[in-house]
From TrEMBL:
Coiled coil: none annotated. Residues 205-216 have a biased composition (Basic residues). Residues 26-66, 193-218 are annotated as: Disordered. Residues 417-468 form the GIL1/IRKI C-terminal domain. Residues 52-64 have a biased composition (Acidic residues). PANTHER family: PROTEIN GRAVITROPIC IN THE LIGHT 1 (PTHR31161). It comes from Camellia sinensis var. sinensis. The lineage of its organism: Eukaryota, Viridiplantae, Streptophyta, Embryophyta, Tracheophyta. Residues 27-51 have a biased composition (Basic and acidic residues). This is Uncharacterized protein.
Amino acid sequence: MASKVSNFSDLIQRVTASCLLHPLAAGRHDPDEISDHRTGDESEDDHRYKTEDEEEDDEVEDGERDGFRVLDGARSERVIEMEMMMGQVFDAVSAMKRAYVSLQESHCPWDPDKMRVADVAVVAELRRLGVLRERFRRSVGRECGGRERRLGTAGVTLREVVAPYEAAVEELKKEVKVREAEVQNLTEKLKTATRLGGGGGGGGKKGRSHQSKRKVSCSQAQVAAVPVPEIFEATMSSVNEASKSFTSLLLSLMRSAHWDIGAAVRSIESATSTTAESAVGAHHARYALESYVNRKIFQGFDHETFYMDGSLSSLLHPDQFRRECFTQYRDMKAMDPIELLGILPTCHFGKFCSKKFLSIVHPKMEESLFGDLEQRRQVLAGNHPRSQFYGEFLGLAKAVWLLHLLAFSLDPPPSHFEASRGAEFHLQYMESVVRLSGGRGVVGQVVGFAVSPGFKLVNGSVIKARVYLVPRT
């Protein structure tokens, strides 16, 4: 026991001496220098300890090598995964491109069924790309780690997710605005129908008789083989109905855009009179607006092409020109103007629509009503927008174009006349747009402005000009 203690004390002394002779820098000295200062026993002990340390180091190095091998394997799997994901991305983009091409082809010629199928395919591929994007982001988040990285990625994802919803909200707001205008338009039509159908006694019978006569005329127009004045009368009734419908929609959009309707009416009246004072009440603003629309769209009616060119066919070959006009009338009567312009956007009727739309709808008006000039840009480019507003305008444009074709089909053509401001009211040639109580209602009143023109036909019948009456000043 005493010898063991002695050996243990000697061991402590040797270790202490080694530490004093070779402090912390000893690990950086050359092993040969250290061995010069040591005894034989010290060398043996150090060799024993060094061997144990080297074994530990070898184990660590082996572990590190194994770790690198695992890491290399993980990286290889990561590369394979990314390559597979990129392949899926390229496949999805190619499929979306094919679907989008099909969607474009379905527009011309117009094929609603093919369009719906192509639209579903495009949306499906977009969703597939979205899923791949989220997979990639989650994978990158797991690899990078770190709170800041995760927060940054989450912030970007949140912004990109919210952006489409914000755009959708804006589109919905525009759609709500259009729907409100449609509701107001239908309300105006309902009020008009109620007023026309609400008359009692003889007035109601007269109205029913007039409507039945109009139906007979329309039926004649469908089967007539030659142009007759009755067809012209029925077509003029269609023009007046289309004019009222388009004007009601335009007025509803103005109110939705918070226009000063009184100022707009005064501006319209000032274009036809030097009188600054407005003669129209606020509840009759639609008549002033209808007057403005009709004045623009009937301008050039007496010329065979509305002065869109210098053609003189009606003078050089009158019989042939009349036959061609009536043939065009019969061909076009049953056609949807949108479908016709989709096939022949730059035909004579298409040019007429473009010219009159740009004349009626001022750029500032369009920007105020719709927030942009997209419809105007399409019209200037030779196209025809597929909007609800432009579709309503095409209904009026088609009715006027058919009336124009009929006018040049008749021999001789109808005489076109308008009532001027301040003119005396003549019951034979005029009718008031505001309901009057018998014949006494016109006493002391004169024409405020013409709402729509009148025509005198070859058979002696007269299509009365519609006028707005005001008290004589």
